[in-house]
Amino acid sequence: MAEDRHDGDIMSIPGATDSIDAATFEQILEMDDDEEERDFSKSIVYDFFTQAENTFGKMDTSLEEKNLKTLSELGHFLKGSSATLGLTKVKDSCEKIQHYGQRKDETGTKDLASDDEALKKLAAAIKQAKTEFRDVEKVLRKFYHDDS
């Protein structure tokens, strides 16, 4: 049975339990026809990698341009994609980006004092989201036997 194999269980990979919601990711895996190849879930995950890279590039540009509205929209967009896969840390950081782009605190409840404060918090949150993305990307590549 594939679930019993060490390499068939994503949560057995170091770093997975901190960054992936097992129940959510398992729902994606259930759509695979072949538990050995996992072509369907792999295509979804690898499409997310590309989407995240592109979105982080747009965030960097928007940060340079001090475009809070676009940063909020990009945070919201990537939050949804990462939530769909159960990538909890990336989702949480993207939610902060969404709020900071609206000149709100990380919970979205209090107003920030200025655009400069929001931009400072955005720079830190984007950096954090990128780190969390790289960490979970390594876990997922290991799961799909692609350690490149």
From TrEMBL:
GO terms for molecular function: histidine phosphotransfer kinase activity; protein histidine kinase binding. One of its GO terms (biological process) is phosphorelay signal transduction system. Keywords: Coiled coil, Kinase, Phosphoprotein, Transferase. It comes from the Eukaryota. Residues 37-136 form the HPt domain. Residues 112-139 form a coiled coil. One of its GO terms (cellular component) is nucleus. The modification Phosphohistidine is found at residue 76. The keyword Phosphoprotein applies. InterPro entries: AHP1-5/YPD1, HPT_dom_sf, Sig_transdc_His_kin_Hpt_dom. PROSITE patterns: HPT. This is Signal transduction histidine kinase. It comes from Lophiotrema nucula.
